[in-house]
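step: validate -> pass
step: tokenize input -> pass
step: predict -> running
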Amino acid sequence: MPSASGLSRDQRIRCRDRVVQAARLTLANKDHTHYTEGPLRWDGIKNRRNAEIGRFPEYSDCSSFATWCLWNGLVLRFGLGDIVNGAGWTAGYTGTMLEHGLPVRYPSNVLPGDCVI
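step: predict -> pass
step: emit ->
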């Protein structure tokens, strides 16, 4: 299956591990993370909240949270540009995520850490 990121198989495994780590960290701290559709929703990326050292967004919405999780794996681990929203990791929503992803032909190809809409 092609990779939207261009990462090798081994790199994708490490990236997915970081994405899952970010999601689990935020879930464990759900009482300290607040939903907002305002400008604070980019708190995780804007303030470089690195899940590997226990930092999570205090504010987000659904798409900014998913973007932050992917940012932890793609940027902090591999230094990739914004392949998720195409906005330099500063903006986006579900629609821009759809524009930059790949269709999933077989649900069996989905792995932990993949963002599926």
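step: describe -> The helical segments are 9-28, 43-46, 62-74, 94-100.
step: cleanup -> pass
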